[in-house]
Recover the amino acids of this structure.
């Protein structure tokens, strides 16, 4: 078993990520996915490469789903990696009760974690 630890100064054994903030990670079928500097999605399969950049709310989590990748953000959005671009999941945006989500402190909600089973994605939305 290997243990990977993302830190504010990189990931052990990944020269490509030296000096970068490596946040949430997830294991796919043949690769590891990571959020880097809160704005980039990287894939590690031997070597690490940046596969997408995002200018919206900070990226908070990654979840492999089948052959795809779901990505959560601050302000409670779900994105999908599509041909090197991150696109907003419109069905998640259209959830009926979305406008009633709040945090006890009054700040914006955030997508904090996700899990997937048989193509169903479970999303945990909470305060920052």
């Amino acid at each position: 078993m290997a243990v990977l630890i993302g830190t504010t100064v990189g990931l052990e054994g990944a020269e490509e990520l030296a000096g970068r903030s490596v946040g949430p990670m997830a294991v796919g079928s043949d690769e590891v996915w990571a959020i880097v500097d809160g704005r980039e999605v990287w894939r590690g399969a031997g070597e690490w490469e940046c596969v997408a950049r995002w200018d919206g709310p900070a990226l908070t989590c990654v979840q492999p789903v089948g052959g795809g990748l779901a990505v959560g953000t601050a302000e409670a959005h779900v994105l999908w990696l599509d041909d090197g671009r991150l696109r907003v999941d419109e069905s998640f945006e259209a959830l009926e009760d979305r406008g009633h989500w709040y945090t006890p402190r009054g700040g914006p909600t955030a997508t904090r974690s996700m899990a997937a089973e048989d193509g169903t994605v479970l999303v945990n939305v909470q305060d920052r």
